[in-house]
Write a structure and sequence with these properties.
about 35% strand, six-stranded mixed β-sheet
């Protein structure tokens, strides 16, 4: 398994352990209908230009959006945002503890404006920069 696949699998595993159904952004509509909430949209990892340190370490940015179903009006979403934020921090912490990971930096954690699905959701977006040892 290459580093890109390894990173995707590692993040997917941590999200699934927190009860998120993991999908690519293009699969969101079918996941809402068949899997339900909470949902994690995981983008393809992007190699970060200029941060490659020889052949031993590679850095990737990976975007993740976590969605939970909204149960009340938008002004009462703070508790859901707090839960999602805690999940983001927990996932990043567990990813950082993996033996193939050098470091994890949460570059961005922000609420997503408006619903991403027809079912009504609350979502937060994060971008994690993950440095991985190559060849592990």
């Amino acid at each position: 398994m290459n580093t890109r696949e390894s990173l995707f699998a590692l993040i997917k595993k941590q999200l699934e352990e927190r009860s998120y159904s993991v999908c690519a952004p293009a699969e969101l509509a079918s996941f809402v209908a068949h899997e339900g909430f909470p949902i994690a949209l995981v983008e393809e990892p992007k190699l970060v230009a200029g941060s490659v340190s020889g052949d031993t370490v590679r850095a990737y940015d990976i975007g993740v959006k976590l969605l939970m179903q909204r149960v009340s009006s938008a002004d009462k979403c703070a508790p859901l945002f707090a839960l999602i934020e805690d999940d983001i921090v927990q996932v990043a912490t567990l990813v950082a503890e993996a033996p193939e990971v050098c470091s994890v930096v949460l570059r961005e954690v922000a609420p997503v404006a408006g619903a991403l699905t027809h079912a009504g959701d609350v979502a937060m977006s994060t971008v994690m920069r993950v440095e991985l040892f190559c060849g592990m």
